[in-house]
Every structure is written in C-alpha cells, then in structure tokens.
Amino acid sequence: MTLVRFPNRRAVLGSFLVGAAVVGCADVQADPATTDRPAAKSGAAAAQIAPAKPKPLPQLPRGGRKLFPAHQLVAFVGAPGAPALGPLDSNLDERARRLERLAAAHRGGRTPLPVMELIVVTAQGAGGWDGKYRSRIKPAEIGRYLAVARKHKMLLMLDVQPGQARPIDEVRRLEPWLRQPDVGLALDPEWEVGPGEVPGQVFGRTSGAELNQIAGYLSALVTKYRLPEKLFVFHQLTKRIVQNEAVLRGYPGVAMVKSVDGIGTRGAKEATYRQLTTQLPRGVHTGFKLFYEEDTRHGALMTPAQVLTLRPRPELVIYE
C-alpha cells in the first residue's frame, strides 16, 4: 500500500474480533418426605443450584465506564511506517511510554487517559482499486496496535479519512474492533470528498446529519454489547467542513468530541479554537490538535499548561 502525503498535512488505513457466553440452570422440585431433613443439607442443595454471578460489565482501560468529566485524554496519531503522519509510525512501546509522560503533564486535576490514534483508512490522490480515493491498512496491523494499547492500558482510536467512500460504510467495516470496550473512532472529514473530487485538491466536508448517523450506530453497539462510553471524534479545520452542525445531538453511551485542527501561530490556533467552539451543540466535547512540525515552523509548540488555559478546556489533546 502506498501512503500519499498531501502538502498541507496527514493521511491512512482498516478491520476484526469478539465473542459471548450463555449459562442456564434447572428448577428443583421439593420432596415432601424429606422436609424433616437437617437444614444444612437443604442449604447445600440450594448452593448447588445457585445461579452464576453476572459477568462484570466491560470497563475503560484504567477503570470506570464514563470518559468525561473524570478523564483527560491525550493522544498520539500515526500510521505504520509513515513518520510524516505522526509519532505512531514505529517503536510503539517507546512511543507509548513517551505518550504516558505527556498525558501526565496534562493532568490538571483529572485522570490522564492516553489514546493511540491509528489512521486505518487513508485518503489518497489516486482512485485505487475501486475508485474511492482511499486505502485501508490490514487487520493484522490494527491488532498489533491494539495489543500495544492494551499492554499500556490505553485507548485505541481508529481514524477514518474516507476519500470518496461513504463514511458509514468504512465505519461498519470496523465493527469487529468497535465492539471492543477500549476502541474508539475518529472521522477526518477534511478528506471526505464528493464524486469528481480528489482529496488534497479540495477541502472535504461532512454534515451534522452524517455525524449523527455514525454516533447512532456507535450508540447501538454500546447498548448491544454493554460497552463503556465510546469515544467518537470528528476533526475540524474550518467552519465549512461541518455543515448544518446545529442538528448534532447526544447519543446514549457516546462521547462526541470536536477536535479543532488549527494551523499557524499560537494566536491563530487559539482564534480558530474560539471560533469553532462557540455555540457548541449540547453534549459535544472539545479537543485541540498540535502539530510537531507545522506549529514549530510558525513559532513554537504550545506547552501543556498553555493548552489547558483554553476555554472551554480541551478534554482531548492530540499530537501529530
């Protein structure tokens, strides 16, 4: 698979897992002739037919079933063998330890929860095998990243850059992974283009209705598999990338986050953040993205303390 690095920024990649169990018990008919037997024996018989204890509900990697407001999420983004796309390209255990330290620096009174954001579907400049201008990583790669995330008790977040494909179709392909209690989802609509458009040549877009469709799908998974709160992030660089945002609404079991991807000087990034986080639809949380290369070219990377002074406070901070 060939990854395409567009002039402005990122790119990526695809799916598999899960199981269940059923238990039963039998009724016991009392024998009147044995009613005068010692109570100890009847108690033992009752113990033999006692129903099994219910299986504990799945938890988040560091305990609990709700993400906010208890946790502060801090993420690294990347793809296998693609250092231009972020830190998660190789040496995953070392990068996980580095992410752990970075997450601790953003604590600010909350419990840090590191997130590995893996680009699993990557927009590209060529049509590809089905003309959808995107490629997918192999399921084995997703499994490798999930194993590292679990080793370090981190969330794994699967990032989708749809190209010309329908986002909901790409998300459904990831269902075996999304059934897991420690796997979330991100949509990067900057790379979602229409027929006749090429990613990287135009800015993509999504709509509030489309985001609701995905959130509703995730909510159904949470209910069906009794999962803890599911992280759903959508990235946004400019206002027009998300059309009709006012229709966004909350869904049970889904923590929806708008991650603001502003580029430029610190002042420009903060201005973009303020513009895109005023009048947020109810129930939408906020995120903030920093770029190691681009931000440094425009001055300096903001420190964790500076990021936490933003209002509203970003509940997810992503480093690319």
Automatic annotation (TrEMBL):
<feature type="region of interest" description="Disordered">
    <location>
        <begin position="34"/>
        <end position="58"/>
    </location>
</feature>
<feature type="compositionally biased region" description="Low complexity">
    <location>
        <begin position="40"/>
        <end position="52"/>
    </location>
</feature>
<feature type="signal peptide">
    <location>
        <begin position="1"/>
        <end position="26"/>
    </location>
</feature>
<keyword id="KW-0449">Lipoprotein</keyword>
<keyword id="KW-0732">Signal</keyword>
<protein>
    <submittedName>
        <fullName>Putative lipoprotein</fullName>
    </submittedName>
</protein>
